[in-house]
Amino acid sequence: MSSRRDFFTGAAALVGAGLVSRAGAATLPEAPVMSTAATQAPLAPPNGRPYHPVVTLNGWSLPWRMNNGVKEFHLVAEPVVREIAPGMKANLWGYNGQSPGPTIEVVEGDRVRIFVTNRLPEHTSIHWHGQRLPNGMDGVTGLTQPGIQPGKTFVYEFVARRPGTFMYHPHADEMVQMAMGMMGFWVTHPKNPAQHRVDRDFVFLLNAYDIEPGSYTPRVNEMLDFNLWTFNSRAFPGIDTMNVRLNDRVRIRIGNLTMTNHPIHLHGHEFEVTGTDGGWTRPESRWPEVTTDVGVGQMRAIEFVASEPGDWAFHCHKSHHTMNAMGHDVPTLIGVDHRGVAEKISKLVPDYMVMGDKGGSMGDMEMPLPDNTLPMMSGQGPFGGVEMGGMFTVLKVRKDQRPGDYKDPGWYRHPAGTVAYEWKGEPPAPVRSQTAGGQAMPAAAKGPEVEVTVRKPKGHQGHH
User: Fold this and answer.
1) Does the structure show a pLDDT above 50 at 65?
2) What is the Rg, in whole angstroms, of the alpha carbon atoms belonging to the chain?
């Protein structure tokens, strides 16, 4: 992370002490920039009310300065280059060097002041999604404020009135600006740090893009046929894992700013939905789930105890949302023998490969790709190809993961006898059905014959 004066320093130094000089108070607070797509360590609060910080998956939290009891942040709306996954970058719009922008963390009751500088080629604004605030701070261009013109800086100021999980995004030329990646996460922590306390608290946004293979800029007019589905603008295998200690209480906060809903599914554990963008759910209203549907414009906070060691998949359960660079209107060729056609095509296109006649899996096949794109299915695990993409990552639960340690522990070492294995014996003989319908039925024990009389209902004579 660097400042706009191109020097590198620690997060605590960027936040600075709780005092601001009279000259400094008349200037803008620093606007830190993040250039790496790796998940950053949680930002411990050096001043102000205490809280338990969150970890933004493949992202970071925005430092602030204290100015006469007000937390001051500086967001810069600007064009950015985001690495979607190794081998692919995208020209997006975002904040402070990244898309999504940095997470903003405050505490219930904090007075916050956000400076927003526009370095886009058109006007913009910021809507603080889900917040209780004065109407003129709501950020809807034309309705509650004029647009922030290029090169100008606006100031938003309000009190963070209730704890919870929120987002920020433009309410200006939304079809373009949100499709280009302008969004960010906001967390308001409870005034009492012990309230809703968890050991690990992860946050990320769901986003979708239509970036044709070989190109770098999203097609902003797309409504339905997106080809990249991402967690915080990262696609698997470029999404970091969530690394936790055995028996940690874990919270995962998810915000959806795509054009469709996403059923988010966790393997190996049950969870409860403990919060929405409307607030914390009451304990008596919760029930166990393994999948929760996150609708458009919604936030969900789920919580569980990581009681099962291992590498557990965490993903959207729409199968096309765990793929990359998908093509549309592609015919199904399962069972079609097109070897003769393939031989003719190979003479014209030497790298041509037969695909789809036996199913969609590409296994270990390698084929040339256009510049700046990703394979549909990718990622290597300890047993081979994971064959996933898009909205997919792994929850890694380890007994020896230290409290507060978010480093990747590597692949799980399975205890002996706990991995599915190939059967080496003779396969069981097939059971042949004796019924006309072809279904195998158990043999019935012989008993006395019973005479049955069947009566047809009246009014149906002559109908068969």
Assistant:
1) yes
2) 27
Compute the half-sphere exposure of residue 51: CA atoms within 13 Å on the CB side of its CA: 25
Q: What is the pLDDT of residues 179-202, one digit of tens each?
A: 999 999 999 999 999 999 999 999
Q: How many CB atoms lie within 10 A of CB 299?
A: 24
**The overall pTM is greater than 0.85:** no
Is the CB of residue 324 less than 8 Å from the CB of residue 297? no
- Residue 335: how many CA atoms within 13 Å on its side-chain side? 1
Please, is 390 exposed, middle or buried when counting C-beta atoms within 10 Å of its C-beta (0-12, 13-18, 19+)?
buried
Question: Residue 56 forms beta bridges with which residues?
Answer: 203
Q: Convert the pLDDT of each residue in 7-56 to its tens digit.
A: 233 343 333 334 555 566 668 999 999 989 999 999 999 999 999 999 99
The secondary structure element, H or E, covering residue 316 is strand 310-316
The per-residue pLDDT of the chain, averaged, comes to: 86
The residue ranking higher by pLDDT, 23 or 279, is 279
Instruction: Give Cα separations from 400 to 199, 244, 246, 409 (angstroms).
Output: 15, 10, 8, 9
Considering all CA atoms of the chain, what is the largest pairwise distance in Å, rounded to the nearest integer?
A: 104
Q: What proportion of the chain, given as a percentage, has pLDDT over 90?
A: 69
| Cα torsion angle, 372, 375, 376, 379, sign | negative
Helices (H) and strands (E) counted in the chain, each on its own, are 4, 23
Q: Give me the phi and psi of 274, to 5 degrees please.
A: -105, -10
The dihedral over CA atoms of 453, 456, 457, 461, expressed in degrees to the nearest 10, equals -160
H/E stretch holding 129 reads: strand 127-129
